[in-house]
Amino acid sequence: MLIATWNVNSVRARMERVLEFLEVHQPDALLLQETKVAQEQFPFLELAAAGYQAVDHSTGRWAGVAILVPDDVEVTAPVRGLAGEPLPGEARWVEATVRGIRLVSVYVPNGRSLLDPSFPDKLVFLDAMRDRIAALAAAGPLLLGGDLNVAPTDADVWDPRRFVGTTHTSPEERSRLQAMLDAGVVDLHRHVVERGSEREGDEPGFTWWDYRAGAFHRNLGMRIDLFLATPDVAARARRCGIDRDFRKGAKPSDHAPLIVAL
DNA sequence: ATGGTCGGTATCCGA
Question: How is residue A219 annotated by DSSP?
Fold first, then answer.
């Protein structure tokens, strides 16, 4: 069973690469973030032609999340939205159950800067996530994937000195991510790499690189796209990593997809 | 690297 999470930075602008991804990897679920589309414009028909159905939670120009699943796989109990999130209209959380696993696709608010009014909203969102994760983790197998907009450790940014006093690395954000882990999930990418390989330098790689200034080719990136999984799901993980090819080529997203094989 | 780029859909904002 193959599951991937990918911030596509507009599903319509990215449609060719999304279809390429579905063909190459044939995932049993693809968790999308930043669909940036109104629901009536969501590309259901193009995806259906490729053999995929979608549980979509998109509300307009910004944000938006979805879960893509092959047509012949049953999807049950969709939930759109997160209890306690400060701005429900932004469409940042969607859940569904596939093959006995509760899946979540989440796009956490960026926060912009520590002094921006959106930063406290980001912290409230992270608090709400923790509460929902605790409930879901207690109920059964859980695999959450998405753009957390938090780099878990200083090893997850290209130069920690540049992030002093910025978002994505602050103690306020990292303590809330830790609270999620304490609620009963693991950082799956790190977990699999550390469990599966002791090779020096085989750290979980970055998942995002700025479009500007050749950041990708200079590997000036961050690891902000994560899988959070309950221990039963983590024990089933055979491989977990990114596919760098989808950060290359024509019209790439600024995020690479993160893939786990169960 | 404090934007040299994208995307939406507008002549700017958000990331």
Answer: T
Element of type H or E holding A236 = helix A231-236
Tokens 């491989």 belong to residue: A239
**Distance of A36 CA from B7 C1′ (whole Å):** 9
**Each residue of A113-157: pLDDT tens digit?**
999 999 999 999 999 999 999 999 999 999 999 999 999 999 999
Strand B closer than 7 Å to the CB of A121? no
Write down how long chain A is: 262
Residue with tokens 């304490």: A182
Give CA torsion, residues A88, A91, A93, A99, to 10 deg.
Answer: 130
Contacts of A144 (CB under 8 A, 6+ apart): A103, A104, A106, A133, A185, A227, A228, A229
Chain B nucleotides near the protein (CB, 7 A): 1-9, 14-15
- Mean pLDDT for A221-247 is 96
What CATH number is given to the structural domain containing A28?
3.60.10.10
Residue A198 and residue A220: Cα distance in Å, rounded? 24
Write out the residue range of the structural domain in which residue A188 sits. Answer: 2-261
Residue A74 has φ and ψ, to the nearest 5°, of -75, 135
Number of domains present in the structure of chain A: 1
- The Cα A35–Cα A10 span in angstroms is 5
Give the mean pLDDT of A255-261.
97
| A209 CB neighbours strand B below 7 A | yes
Q: Which nucleotide is nearest to A38 (CA to C1')?
A: B8
- Say what the pTM is: 0.96
